[in-house]
Amino acid sequence: MSYLTLSFALIFVIIPLVLSKTLHLGLEKDTLVAAIRSIVQLLIVGYLLQYVFDAENILYILLMVLLIIGAATQNARKKGAAIKGITWKLVITFITIEVLTQGILLGLSITPATPQYIIPISGMIVGNSMVLSILFLNRFTSEVETHENETELILSLGGTPKQAIHRQLTDSIKASIIPTIESQKTIGLVQLPGMMSGQIIAGADPVQAVQFQLLILFLVMTSAIITSIMLGYLSYPTLFNQRMQMLVGKNNKV
Amino acid sequence: MTDNAAIQFKNVNYSAGGTHILKDITGVFVKGKITTLVGPSGAGKTTLFKLCNGLIPPDSGEIYLHDKHIDSYDPVKLRLGVGLALQDATMIRGSVRNNLALPMELQGKQLAEEHANELMEVVDLDKQLLDQDAKEISGGQRQRLSIARTLVNNPEILLLDEITSSLDRVSKKDVENLIMKINRDYGTTIIWITHSIHQARTIGDYTWVMMDGSLMESGESGLLDNPENNAVNQFVKGEVE
Ligand SMILES: Nc1ncnc2c1ncn2[C@@H]1O[C@H](COP(=O)(O)OP(=O)(O)O)[C@@H](O)[C@H]1O
Ligand SMILES: [Mg+2]
Fold first, then answer.
1. Cα separation of the two ends of chain A
2. What is the pTM of this model?
3. Cα(A74)–Cα(A167) distance, integer angstroms
4. d(CA B118, CA B130)
5. β-strands B68-69, B60-65 pairing
6. In the prediction, which pLDDT does B239 show?
7. Residue B144: CB atoms within 10 Å
8. Which of B15, B79, B111 would best serve as a mutation to test chain A binding (most A beta carbons within 10 A)?
9. Do the chains contact at B79 and A243, CB–CB below 8 Å?
10. How much is the ipTM here?
11. Radius of gyration of chain B (CA)
């Protein structure tokens, strides 16, 4: 696609602008900002990737992956503000996911060790892991709050923090993973996954595109479960102190 | 005085949510006796119980259990020895049996059928209830279940927070008799928060009166007949709620 043909795509920015204006929806500014941001951000990523691909330097690949992890952490940490050291817990989780998935992919030669494969797959996996973290942290924070009396009851009867928070923890892990499982059940029936569509449009053999998509789906499934479990087990101890006392909710000092 | 203290407070302060809830509490709960604890809502009674069970730490001051500093106990052992029945009688998800068995399960043990039946009988609950959903039983039944559950660990000290508030007059008497029997038979130290001055006077050997986070008066329960402090006097006569 040339920049000239791409410029025709701006028609699809103008349509919402005109509609918003005539119907007084007040969305003109946001639409414009969104359009400009996507142009700038994606072009930067495109040129950056081209540079990294050409350079074929392992250091650049590493840097890109770290960038991805950094951005994902930045996005997810706000949801876990109540949990001490959430930034590092997220970083550790994302790194584990990345090392594990790439380790299997590269170790078993499922994908070649080139930036063309490593970087986009890392982006997809860590991106998914980020969404899972946000789902998990949202749910866990609210479960802890709603079931504070049960936590207190179990502690008062001589239960450990782990016993006292177990139900909230497993419920939150389950709840955060269910959307991933559900969406995979209907995949391909209504909407083709974005990556697969892209490959087919770019001229790839549909069956091969499907094989690749399946690989990603299974990676997503694994990383989803590992993300929630890891984050859960890293997070719950920070809600208690050494004397097995709850530090959040009613007993909060502020 | 100290060698017959089950629990002793020395200048204990506690605040949460920006509120000074307990103010310089100094006093003793006598070993093997029943101490009743009265005071208007919000006086800090429940908070005091949570300190005794180790659920929360004081901001300043010391708490001693059988003359040993509370922090020198392992938290789990402390809580097994100091049983707490909270006023809301919270239930976990599951059946009545699940709730009754909870203290055992937390220790990795099982509650034997006979033991379960025995406990149900002690608090006058029908065995048929065991397999019902704990959410479905009445407020009064929940309070009895909560008492039974606290008894499972055979604590040396029993902290009872308004455990008869949802019970009718006859059931109240039953629970009072049960607690007095436990106190007599096992020498269990009882500390009982109640809204009823009458209950506090008749059940208690000793009484604490708390108001607005402070311990106003304490001593033998007869003090309720003729409190020295004016505010306490008004409260006892039912003029302050
Ligand atoms: N976490 C908290 N944050 C703010 N205030 C609290 C908190 N816990 C208890 N309080 C306040 O402390 C006071 C004492 O509470 P509580 O111990 O439950 O009193 P009581 O059992 O005597 O009715 C009440 O005014 C209550 O609102
Ligand atoms: Mg209370």
1. 57
2. 0.89
3. 28
4. 12
5. antiparallel
6. 63
7. 27
8. B79
9. no
10. 0.95
11. 18
